[in-house]
């Protein structure tokens, strides 16, 4: 009789820590799941469904042991645009296809290559999402309807705030939203005992209590019930895959969700000393979760750094904590769904404004500008492009800039001319001689005096591409034909 408890302890040595951590993660995830769903233009319960799948499915799979998955603020803008353009039934098709692509990429072991994506592009992507998210949710805070475009959201904010000043219900909504943001900002400065309650939960709880006690005329979450909200995509919905625009949206979902999840995994690995992330398996775990979310017609999932960090900081030791957090979300959705109807929408909008602000790395931009201005430029251009154009095109612009910058830096070349006034002119080339630097090389060599012998030393080159080699040979032939001694060339030690 006494051996069974001991056996359980041996099998689950960290159950107490994981159980406590799961409750913390649940309390952090609950308002975020609901807020992301409402901001995405879908029923609130679908956010809970994605959180449940993130816990019970992705949480059980191998990859990153302490990372927690669910609906993320980073995809809110993209989901909202997809729902507006293609309709809610098509969302399940998009998310299902995203999951299948992630499973395929994981099986092909492409997960590790996401670590090669420029950090500046990813941070610029998140910053652009954050800016659009903040601008859009400020309208919800003011009880107004947001324009569709990113630039329209930003440009229309002053007018929306002026209009809100003349409306009692809008002022009440502003007060709830501003109060929510204030609680979130100030929460970290409160005593540790108070901070045992997660800030998002406290902010939403206080906002809900204030709205009820003061009987404020603010919009609240519409409740449909868990089963009523789950609408698997019909067979006819898959006909939307014939549209090029929808295929582009699927690619955007896949790239952004995968990059955000794997970059989050790298960040979580820095927070603990446990097993490191297996990137390909984590990508497959995310794919399995998204495939199931798509089959249920729910929101897409990614790994969420806010929940993951809360999980680690709460003392989680194994994947049991994230699985249990999914159990608590399921129990809440099944037993207490009507509680959602009391939550003010401006409170959820305030949470997302705060989350969006965290996505804009102001300090990182300042630091990059001082040390790596090229990277700072990529970050800013990516963010601005997302706001001005769209998510997908903005990321492509950022990636193109990053590739161009890398190609330019990889072709770093130094040319040193030594002319002692008598004897041959010595030209030393070092670095990487690629076609990108060919005009500079030829301009300098063609400026050398035609009536003097030249010694061209290429031994300092790490790389000499075919275009450069051909051009140097042609120049040497022309210079030698001018009646002087033939150009003496010292070949590189190795050429690629």
Could you write a compact summary of the structure shown?
The chain is built from 21 helices and six strands.
Plain-language structure description:
By secondary structure, this protein is α/β, with parallel strands linked by helices. The protein has 2 domains: 394 residues, no CATH class; 78 residues, Transcription Regulator spoIIAA (2-Layer Sandwich). The strands form 2 sheets. It has a 4-stranded mixed beta sheet with strand order 3-4-5-6, covered by helices on one side. It has a two-stranded antiparallel sheet with strand order 1-2. The longest helix has 26 residues. The chain is elongated, with a radius of gyration of 29 Å. 47% of the residues are buried. The mean pLDDT is 85.
Task: Looking at this protein, list some descriptive labels.
single chain, 62% helix, Transcription Regulator spoIIAA, two-stranded antiparallel ribbon, 4-stranded mixed β-sheet, 496 residues, alpha/beta, elongated, 6 strands, 21 helices
């Amino acid at each position: 009789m006494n051996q069974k408890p001991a056996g359980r302890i041996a099998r689950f040595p960290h159950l107490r820590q994981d159980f406590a951590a799961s409750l913390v993660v649940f309390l952090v995830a609950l308002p975020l799941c609901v807020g992301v769903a409402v901001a995405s233009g879908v029923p609130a319960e679908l956010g809970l469904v994605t959180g449940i799948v993130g816990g019970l499915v992705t949480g059980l799979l191998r990859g990153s042991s302490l990372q927690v998955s669910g609906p993320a603020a980073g995809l809110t803008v993209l989901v909202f645009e997809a729902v507006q353009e293609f309709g809610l039934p098509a969302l399940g098709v998009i998310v299902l296809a995203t999951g299948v692509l992630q499973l395929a990429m994981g099986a092909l072991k492409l997960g590790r290559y996401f670590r090669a994506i420029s950090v500046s592009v990813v941070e610029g992507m998140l910053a652009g999402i954050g800016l659009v998210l903040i601008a859009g949710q400020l309208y919800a805070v003011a009880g107004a309807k947001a324009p569709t475009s990113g630039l329209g959201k930003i440009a229309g904010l002053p007018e929306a705030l002026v209009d809100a000043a003349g409306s009692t219900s809008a002022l009440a909504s502003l007060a709830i939203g501003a109060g929510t943001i204030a609680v979130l900002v100030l929460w970290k400065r409160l005593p540790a005992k108070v901070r045992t309650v997660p800030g998002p939960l406290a902010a939403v709880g206080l906002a809900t209590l204030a709205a009820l006690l003061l009987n404020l005329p603010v919009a609240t979450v519409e409740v449909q019930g868990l089963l009523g909200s789950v609408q698997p995509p019909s067979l006819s919905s898959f006909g939307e895959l014939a549209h090029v625009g929808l295929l582009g949206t699927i690619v955007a979902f896949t790239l952004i969700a995968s990059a955000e999840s794997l970059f989050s995994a790298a960040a979580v690995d820095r927070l603990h000393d446990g097993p490191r992330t297996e990137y390909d398996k984590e990508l497959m775990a995310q794919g399995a979760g998204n495939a199931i979310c798509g089959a249920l017609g729910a929101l897409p999932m990614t790994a969420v750094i806010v929940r993951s960090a809360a999980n680690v900081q709460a003392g989680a030791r194994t994947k049991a904590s994230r699985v249990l957090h999914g159990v608590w979300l399921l129990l809440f959705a099944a037993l207490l769904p009507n509680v959602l109807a009391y939550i003010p929408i401006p409170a959820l909008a305030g949470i997302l404004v705060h989350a969006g602000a965290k996505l804009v790395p102001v300090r990182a931009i300042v630091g990059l500008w001082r040390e790596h201005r090229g990277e700072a430029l990529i970050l800013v251009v990516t963010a601005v492009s997302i706001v001005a154009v769209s998510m997908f095109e903005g990321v492509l612009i950022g990636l193109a800039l990053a590739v161009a910058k890398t190609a330019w830096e990889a072709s770093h070349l130094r040319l040193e001319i030594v002319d002692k006034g008598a004897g041959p002119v010595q030209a030393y080339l070092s670095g990487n001689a690629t076609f990108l630097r060919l005009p500079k090389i030829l301009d300098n060599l063609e400026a050398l005096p035609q009536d003097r012998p030249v010694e061209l030393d290429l031994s300092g080159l790490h790389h000499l591409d075919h275009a450069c080699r051909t051009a140097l040979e042609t120049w040497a032939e022309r210079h030698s034909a001018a009646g002087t001694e033939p150009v003496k060339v010292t070949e590189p030690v190795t050429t690629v």
